Amino acid sequence: MIGAAGEAMVSGPDWRVAVPPPPLGDFGVTQPDDLAWLRARMTAHPRGTFTEAVHLPVPLEQMGFSRTYVLAAGEADRGSLFQAIASRLRGMPAWHVTGLPTGHDMMLTMPQELASLLLSLA
To answer: How many domains are there within the chain?
Structure first.
């Protein structure tokens, strides 16, 4: 999922991966106050989330609950991986794909819209 650049990032000896601060505008965050808030809360990411496989007793699509993929549709240039996932899931009847016209940090850039979307799925 993370490609060659990501492989180098997660190959160190620590159990955590340092998260470099994104430049202004990355992940859809464009307001300086929001970016400062985000940067103040960024912490190292557990390495295992990148390197350890998930093992389920049955395929996810066979489990008895609904599945919705929320695409950050405003990241067309950065989101090729996420766009590819959304395209694959659109072809699977067990999945519903929806999106918001913003970046990855939609909880900052479109909080009301995201909350409404999540509440509609509850």
So the answer is: 2
